[in-house]
TrEMBL record:
Protein name: F420-dependent oxidoreductase
Entry keyword annotation includes Oxidoreductase: yes
Lineage per the UniProt record: Bacteria, Bacillati, Actinomycetota, Actinomycetes, Mycobacteriales
Pfam families: Bac_luciferase (PF00296)
Species for this entry: Mycolicibacter arupensis
Gene Ontology molecular-function annotations: oxidoreductase activity, acting on paired donors, with incorporation or reduction of molecular oxygen
Superkingdom of source: Bacteria
Length: 347
């Protein structure tokens, strides 16, 4: 199991990079940068590429709606170049709250668009002339629909790699099935190891049955809050604001993927209550309504023995990459948590 970290998309990025440099020194494998309605992930990853030398860089994740497929491919090739082949392109649909609310772009056809974006990116990296006639993207744009010549183009530069890895953030059954079919990696959120097979097992199996063997094994990339010690029970509360935001505020009623996931985990009534409070502007009450049980089972918080048990559960559920978020304001304590975690990894 690889160990990495994910940087928050709000505030203190340069300080966080200094901590990543120290984490690289003690042996982490991956660092991910998210993108929502924040600073973009790409400029920050370019900064990280210059400050690090070994860790893999990952977008966690870029919404497929906010850049053209060719621009996503160009950007990935550029980051792979400046990082000497250390970049993985993390993609996802995000949700209507961000895509429509911040970018003003219709949130439509997530499955079809995801498949076509992946196909176009891989074609760009192979430096093929873009002759793509998809349902959602046509490259080049037919002459009768534009003012150009309808002439196909290819990437000018030669990418460091002709196959940059692609991971996809997916939660719904069909999205997860597609991911297991076409992607190098899968990035689920709020991963509950003991309930993962019940929620996603059939989708992963169906996708794997159609998977090209050349893709290799699916890299299951999971995030988890981290605090190790006999006196860290209070840190569970630190993880609740993010859960409340996503379950309660990332989408309207009936269109919130994170609320749906909590419901599939068996927390339907709680999820409804969190959403009701959050959408009513009662955010503190929504945070308080997040149950310790949900936090505890989607994180690594507790004494060494408990964390070791949780790590074993993640491994049993098929997790291959673990992105941890230390629940501390002290850099030295964050490093200690990560160092200790590495000693507890299943062999």
């Amino acid at each position: 199991m690889r160990i990495g970290t994910q940087l928050a998309y709000a505030g203190g990025f340069k300080d966080a990079v200094g901590l990543v440099v120290e984490m690289e020194r003690i042996g982490i494998d991956v660092v991910a940068v998210a993108e929502a309605y924040s600073f973009d992930a790409i400029s920050q990853l370019g900064y990280l590429a210059a400050k690090t030398s070994r860790v893999e860089l990952l977008t966690g994740v870029l919404p497929i709606y906010t850049r053209t497929p060719a621009l996503l491919a160009m950007t990935a090739a550029g980051l792979d170049y400046v990082s000497d082949g250390r970049f993985t392109l993390g993609l996802g649909t995000s949700g209507p709250q961000v895509v429509e609310g911040f970018h003003g772009v219709p949130f439509d056809a997530p499955l079809g668009r995801t498949r076509e974006v992946v196909e176009i990116c891989r074609s760009v990296w192979r430096r093929e002339r873009l002759n793509y006639d998809g349902k959602h993207y046509q490259l080049p744009l037919p002459a009768e629909r534009g003012t150009g010549l309808g002439k196909s183009l290819q990437l000018i530069n030669h990418p460091v790699r002709s196959r940059i890895p692609i991971s996809i953030a997916a939660l719904g059954p069909k999205n997860v099935e597609l991911t297991a079919e076409i992607a190098d990696g899968w990035q689920p959120v709020f991963f509950y190891p003991e309930r993962a097979r019940e929620v996603w097992g059939d989708s992963l199996k169906a996708g794997a049955a159609k998977r090209d063997p050349a893709l290799g094994k699916l890299d299951v990339i999971v995030g988890a809050s981290l605090a190790i010690g006999d006196d860290v029970e209070d840190r569970l509360a630190w993880a609740k604001p993010q859960l409340a935001l996503y379950i309660g505020g990332m989408g309207a009623r009936g269109r919130n993927f994170y609320h749906n996931l909590a419901t599939r985990y068996g927390f339907g009534e709680v999820a409804d209550r969190i959403q009701e409070l959050y959408l009513a502007g009662r955010k503190t009450e929504a945070i308080d309504a997040v149950p310790d049980e949900l936090v505890r089972n989607t994180s690594l918080v507790g004494p060494r023995g408990l964390v070791a048990e949780r790590l074993a559960a993640y491994a049993e559920a098929g997790v291959t990459t673990l992105l941890v978020g230390p629940l501390t304001a002290e850099p030295d304590e964050a490093l200690r948590y990560v160092e200790e975690l590495r000693t507890l990894l299943p062999t």
